[in-house]
Amino acid sequence: MSGQTLSLGFSPCPNDTFIFHALVHGLIDTGDLAFRTQLADVETLNAMAADGALDVTKVSVGALPWLLEEYVPLRSGGAVGRGCGPLIVAREAFPVEELDGKSVAIPGRMTTANLLFRLLRPAAAPGVEMEYNRIMPAVAGGEVDAGLIIHESRFTYRDHGLTCIVDLGEWWEETTGSPIPLGAIIARRSLGKRIGEIERMIRSSVEYAFANPTHSSDYVKANAQEMSPEVTRRHIELYVNDFSRDLGPEGELAVRELAERAAASGLIPAGLEILQPAE
Question: Which of 11, 173, 191, 233 has its CA 20 to 30 A from that of 79?
């Protein structure tokens, strides 16, 4: 495999563009590998992975059970942390229990956010799917009763006149004691021995970002669109951390805990080893 070009998917969110900037701009050694990028929201990436359309991509941890036949999760480049979970917001406060009878916009059925919502309120009605950046306006405009928000929306929902009904990350951390596993990077199993190389490259890209935090500013800003510099900074600080460098034992435990709880609730198949290595 020489001179190979791989398709690489990640979101336009600041944490992903910050992490992958060095990799996609030739600032680290990628040997004879090149990467063709596909930027899209995470549920679109989940669907593309389900179709086998990408060689390496960011996906929701909640989507991993449906992708393991063709892909293997990597240890670097993902999104795991504390204080960074999805929120459910509404125009006015009401008890969490009332969510069961309300319409709730969700950013995709395969997202980790939706999996957490189903764990918290298994009797809730199926969510109303829409792109994550449409959810707050939909809630504010009365299109739905509540919205499950992710990414930078946790910093800006008050600007839409909304209030937080429940912080799913806070609920998860209080329930399990573990950080919340939101996103993962996966690589096609057919890449074989290349998988280890790709994982090392992503780790190097993360380390470059930590060592040179301003080098990616233009790239991050270009993809963050209307996000303010302050929100962009807070977004990166919250979602990029030591778990982005390497999942580590604590991150592994968090992923397995989520899978076990989801399987026990019948939300995913039982008996899966989510972090199984490539063959």
Answer: 191
